[in-house]
């Protein structure tokens, strides 16, 4: 066979060239290690949903407070669940988190709450893994440290408004770090103020976010 005969024809080369963008487009949907982290965390939290996720006695209380505030369209202001302080003034410090729990419960019961919490936590640790890799970590070490972080935090994998704090503190750290590195403008740092205004109505752990930003400002 001659060398000329072994070379692809111009028509074949054109067909291959036209096919390359399609192949590259499909490659974007190929599973990655970040997706593996997401699936592992999601399945683990769903497994906890059968036991530990609802192992906090405050979950039912939060749901009921949320149901009452949704029905009245205002946060509960009178204590109605205490024997010793029934009828006394009451401040629902986590009323929007309670409303989210109540709405999820009304939509699909405890199973839907477990699904939402698993989705949020899996997305959080997937993002943490990607942030580690983008910062220069070797992917295997990034997986190890991400899983260690998930294991350390798993004691707080509870169906409570506390989820906002588990997500909020890493987000505050990431935004503050990018600002200190010069990757975010002063206008963009206002995202922290918006986040805090939402967070403060969901869980008092917003103080942890403020402390995180403050420590980074001092250290930076």
Protein architecture, described:
It is built from nine helices and no strands. It has 220 residues and is an all-alpha fold. The protein is globular, with a radius of gyration of 24 Å. The N and C termini lie far apart (69 Å).
Concise account of the structure shown:
The chain is built from nine helices and no strands. The chain has helices at 3-6, 10-27, 33-48, 58-72, 95-134, 139-153, 163-180, 190-199, 206-219.
What structural class is derived from the secondary structure elements? Answer: mainly alpha
Mean pLDDT score, rounded?
85
Overall shape: it is globular
> What is the helix tally?
9
Task: Tell me the strand percentage band.
Answer: under 5%
Q: Give the termini distance in whole angstroms.
A: 69 Å
How would you classify the quaternary structure?
Answer: single chain
Supply Rg. 24 Å
- Overall helicity: 55-70%
Low-confidence stretches: 1-5
Order of helices and strands: HHHHHHHHH
Q: Can you summarize the main beta sheet?
A: none
């Amino acid at each position: 066979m001659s060398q000329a005969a072994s070379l692809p024809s111009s028509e074949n080369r054109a067909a291959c060239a036209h096919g390359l963008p399609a192949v590259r487009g499909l490659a974007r949907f190929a599973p990655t290690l970040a997706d593996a982290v997401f699936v592992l965390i999601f399945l683990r939290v769903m497994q906890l949903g059968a036991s530990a996720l609802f192992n906090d006695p405050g979950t039912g209380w939060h749901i009921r407070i949320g149901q009452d505030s949704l029905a009245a369209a205002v946060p509960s202001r009178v204590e109605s669940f205490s024997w010793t302080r029934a009828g006394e003034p009451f401040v629902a410090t986590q009323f929007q988190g309670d409303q989210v729990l109540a709405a999820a419960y009304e939509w699909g019961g405890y199973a839907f709450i477990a699904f939402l919490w698993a989705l949020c936590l899996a997305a959080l640790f997937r993002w943490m893994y990607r942030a580690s890799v983008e910062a220069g970590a070797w992917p295997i070490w990034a997986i190890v440290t991400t899983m260690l972080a998930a294991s350390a935090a798993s004691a707080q994998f509870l169906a409570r408004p506390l989820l906002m704090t588990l997500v909020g503190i890493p987000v505050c750290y990431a935004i503050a770090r990018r600002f200190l590195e010069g990757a975010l403008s002063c206008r963009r740092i206002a995202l922290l103020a918006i986040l805090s205004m939402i967070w403060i109505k969901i869980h008092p752990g917003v103080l942890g976010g403020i402390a995180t930003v403050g420590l980074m400002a001092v250290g930076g």
